[in-house]
Amino acid sequence: MDDSREPASLRERAYASFTRHLLARDLRPGQFVSQRELVAFTGLPLGAIREIVPRLEAEGLLTTIPQRGMQIAHIDINLIREAFQFRLFMEREAVALFTANASDAVLARLRREHEDMLAQALSQAPTPEMEAKAQNIDWAMHDTFIDALGNEIIAKAYLVNSVKIRLIHQERFRIDGRVVPVMQEHLTVIEALESRDPQRAVEAISRHIDNARRLALQI
């Protein structure tokens, strides 16, 4: 075993664990937390936690406040505007390329997943399991556009912003009770993708992201 790779592995595990607990709402926006509390959450060594703090601060997920400790990022108007603007810039270009290059099989899979989810939501009362599944389908479609670029630099930057977007969703407008309109809106985007018209697809994803941004800002 190459021992030189172990510290890097611990850092990545600590980072992944932190974001996982953040998205699971074990850690809440605005909450103060100590390094030792993060050790307890992640189950990883204090050294690994100390090493990821500068990264979390640089990414805007954590702020160190003198005499008070570390604070999880607030969900405020500025964060919402900036996160959605970043998402719009990234996804417009990604969707334009995806429309031209995605295989028919991938588009068919996206349609099938959304139509099946919509049919389920229309035929039964919502359950936490159904809403969790719908949320995963929602996020996965957007991730698919970025992943298709095959660009690691873009993927990493998008991942950080994606964590912020998902925090905003959870704090401002969870999918609970909204599965049907979300699936319908996504199907409109998928129809635009199937047209193989990049401009039409860009306009569709722009409307979708702008609708989500407005919803986040008005609550």
Descriptive overview:
- InterPro entries: GntR_C, TF_FadR/GntR_C, Tscrpt_reg_HTH_GntR, WH-like_DNA-bd_sf, WH_DNA-bd_sf.
- This is GntR family transcriptional regulator.
- Keywords: DNA-binding, Transcription, Transcription regulation.
- It is a single chain.
- With 219 residues, the protein is mostly helical.
- It has 2 domains: 3-72, Arc Repressor Mutant, subunit A (Orthogonal Bundle), CATH 1.10.10; 77-218, GntR ligand-binding domain-like (Four Helix Bundle (Hemerythrin (Met), subunit A), Up-down Bundle).
- The chain is 74% helix and 5% strand.
- The protein contains 9 helices and 3 strands; from the N terminus they run αβααββαααααα.
- The chain has a 3-stranded antiparallel sheet.
- Helix 4 (77-101) packs across helix 7 (152-172) and helix 5 (104-123) packs antiparallel against helix 6 (128-147).
- The longest helix is centred in the middle third of the chain and has 25 residues, at 77-101.
- The chain starts with 5 loop residues before the first helix and ends with a helix.
- Residues 1-5 have low confidence and may be disordered.
